[in-house]
Amino acid sequence: MISKMKILMVVLVGAVLVAGQPQATMAKAKKPTVADAIAAGDACYNNKDFGGALWHYTGARDLNPADPGAWEKMAWAALCLHKFDDAHNFIEEAKNRGMDATRVARVKAWIFIGKADDARAAGDTTNAKKWYQDAKNHASGGVDPAVGKRAAEALSQLSSSSKTSSSSDSTSSSASSSSSSSSSSTSSSATSESTSESSSSDSDDEKTSAKSTTSDSETSSSSKKSSSGSSSSSSQADDDEATVASASDEEEGDATGVKEGPAPEKEVPGLTREIIEARIKKLAKELGYSTATDARGRLGIKNKKGKFIKLPPSIFRPPLASELASGSADVATDAGDEQMGEGFFPESRVPGLTREIIEARIKKWAAKMGYTTATDPHGRLGVKNKSGKFVRLPRSIFRPPLASELTGSDSAKEEAASGASASADVGDTSATIATDTSETVTDPVSTLEGN
To answer: What pLDDT does 319 receive?
Structure first.
């Protein structure tokens, strides 16, 4: 009996010992290592779970803070989470623990390009430029050519956009003016108003055709000089990549021909192919470009890259009396011909329109806009914005007079002027002002003061 009890006790003790061994083995297997933590972090990183990757990499760092590799991987994960300051701190720790300088530079290049991308998206171009330059510097020397190339391209784009930003509103204004001019010229019932509108559009196009994208100051200078015709072609010759004006108004045509629409001479009263071609030749000469005949046999203008450009709407405006008499184009370039969007003294070409009616409309419109009136060097009344710059007057100022205006009543003139003006968003004084698609004024960059 005693022997049986001893045997039973031995069996029980053995069972307990055997049962305890797997637990001890499992306890040993659960002990984390740096390699395990890194492997787990890499798996998360490859699955784009950057938060999980950072957690595992941080665990690896805690197990061995002296290992620069864990710090580097933490930096990459933080970078992907857009935690750029944390990423910078992590890579600095890796550097302090002996990380190779090239690897440190590569991580920093990616950090800076990430910061620059975010700043650019937020409209912070100042910091975006600074950080793109930092990214380019860190990526140089073969550290990461892809980052260096992307940073350089971004810097070029930002530089180009900053040069043309001051003329973007004027471009929008010109496009609106062009659209209005084209539609109004097809209406035979509004021939007189079409005449004044087309000439106003002409002033727009001649101004924008001289704009160069070389710099902000050159843009302002060339747009001011274009109305006097003194430097229209020279400003264009400085930039081989320029077409005629902005992308929305003077974009490159296709290689098959000039984008001038379906035979405009058949739609505009009095306009002939001879007058159109004379205008085209004169404009090409002023811009320093060449003329060529397209596949349809129509004359066009080619830029220095050999591409047809879209012709400005002023080429297809109604003909002047001088053009009808001689058949030659008289494209306005002199200061006396163009001022504040009025074209060739519209009161002399719009039946019944007088200078008194025009000035009454101008005063009413200026008061509604919160601007002031002033007389230009030619003695003609205009409107100045809050920056003290003349703005282009809306075409409704030069529309044919109402019957009530022809009576000469001041109250009637004010009433008509009120009808000529529409509600407009004044906004920033440096921006262009558009009352509607048929009433457009220019920004300070391309103001007309008879210059």
So the answer is: 75
190: which 2 tokens? 């509004």
Question: Cα–Cα distance between 213 and 233 in angstroms, integer?
Answer: 14
Q: Using only C-alpha atoms, what is the Rg of the chain?
A: 36
* Three-state secondary-structure class, residue 46: helix
Whether 116 is in a domain gets the answer no
Task: Taking residues 412-416, report their average pLDDT.
Answer: 47
- How much is the pLDDT for 215? 41
Domain assignment of residue 429, given as a range: 164-446
Q: Total domain count for the chain?
A: 1
Instruction: Examine residue 252 and state whether it is found in any structural domain, yes or no.
Output: yes
The C-alpha atoms of residue 85 and residue 118 are separated, in whole angstroms, by 13
Closest C-alpha to 249, from 448, 449, 446, 428:
446
- Confidence band for 258, pLDDT divided at 50, 70 and 90: low
Q: Alpha carbon 101 to chain centroid distance?
A: 39
Instruction: Using CB atoms within 10 Å of the CB of residue 400, give its burial: 0 to 12 exposed, 13 to 18 middle, 19+ buried.
Output: middle
**Three-state SS letters, 280-344:** HHHHHHHHCCEEEECCCCCEEEECCCCCEECCCHHHHCCCCHHHHHHCCCCCCCCCCCCCCCCCC
CA distances from 318 to 198, 344, 401 (A): 7, 12, 20
AA letter at 254: D
3-class DSSP state of 251: coil
In a domain, 146, yes or no: no
Res 3: pLDDT: 66
Dihedral sign, CA of 389, 390, 395, 400? positive
Residues 6+ apart with CB under 8 A from 386: 370, 371, 429
- Rounded distance, CA 308 to CA 129, Å? 35
- pLDDT tens figures, 424-436: 333 333 233 333 3
**Mapping DSSP to helix (H, G, I), strand (E, B) and coil, where does residue 162 land?**
helix
Is the separation of the CB atoms in 208 and 245 below 8 Å? yes
Any idea which residue has 């001041």 for tokens? 410
Q: Would 150 be classed as within a structural domain?
A: no
280-325 pLDDT tens trace = 998 888 888 899 988 878 888 998 888 888 888 778 877 776 666 6
